[in-house]
Structures are given as structure tokens and as C-alpha cells.
Amino acid sequence: MVELSEADSKKWLSLLERRPVPEEPVDEVLEVQGRVLKQRQTRLTEAQKDELVARYVKGSTVCYLAEQFGCHRNTVNNILKSRKIALRCASMTVDQIDRAVDLYESGLSLARVGRELGFDDGAVRLRLIARGVAMRDSHGRIRRAR
């Protein structure tokens, strides 16, 4: 534990007394020189959570629900887990991987391929690497093996 000297504690105490304490969580996106410093937080009501669970049970995907409810896919996963709903593992099929290889080799980015197939760009990248596809850098050039 770190203790502050009397002089330091007086400085900190005065700073803390002047700082307003927010009553509710801040949900604003702060921007400084065009850079986002904080992500907007979406708080779902219990009714929205019930609707989300019902749609998932009927067959909607986690990514689709996250987009529809304006939250992150991890939020959707956490809600489903808290409600004891078994998550469906939606891994890419062999046909989808073949299609991803074709799309990527045609010049599309990993993000565009992922959107086209309904998967995260990181998942697409892992499947392409496993297939031995040469990855491009951010400028579209084939990366050299290290």
C-alpha cells in the first residue's frame, strides 16, 4: 500500500473534491482531435434482452443480433450465457472456406470477405492461413515469408 505525504494528500483531496461525480454511467463518445476515446455503451433493458434471447433461439446469429440491438457481439454472448442458453458454434464450412479463398484471391480484403460470408475478418484470416493462402499487407502486396 502506498501512503501519501500530508502535502500530497492535500493536493489529491482538493482535486477529488472539485471533480463532479456522475450519477449514472457516461454514455457519450468523447472525441479529441478526431480520435474516439471511449466507445458508446449500449445498456439493454430486460425486455430487449428477452427479445434478443427469443430471436437467438429462433435462429438469428450473434453478429446479426449485435447489429440489430446496437451492441457488441460479446455483449450478446454474455446475455445468452447469463440466461443459460447454449451457444451455437458457427464455424466455417469447407464450402465457405473455399468461397473465402476465391474472394480473397480475387482481391477483396479480409473484412469484405468476412462481411460477404457473415464471419469476423479474424476467423477468415485463420482459415485462409490454414489453407496456405499467401496473406497481403495493408497495401495489397503479398507478404514475404519470414
Distance between the ends: 46 Å
Shape: flat
- Largest sheet, strands/sense/barrel: 2 strands, antiparallel
The count of β-strands is 2
Portion of residues within helices: 40-55%
Helical segment tally?
7
Question: Strand order across the biggest sheet?
Answer: 1-2
Measured by DSSP, the beta-strand proportion falls in under 5%
Poorly predicted spans: none
Mean pLDDT: 79
Task: Give, in order, the helices and strands.
Answer: HEEHHHHHH
Radius of gyration: 23 Å
Structural class: mainly alpha
Please, could you describe this protein's structure?
With 146 residues, the protein is mainly alpha-helical. It has seven helices and two strands, in the order αββαααααα. The chain has a two-stranded antiparallel sheet with strand order 1-2. Strand 1 (31-32) and strand 2 form a beta hairpin. Helix 3 packs across helix 4 and helix 5 (94-105) packs antiparallel against helix 6. The radius of gyration is 23 Å and the shape is flat. The mean pLDDT is 79.
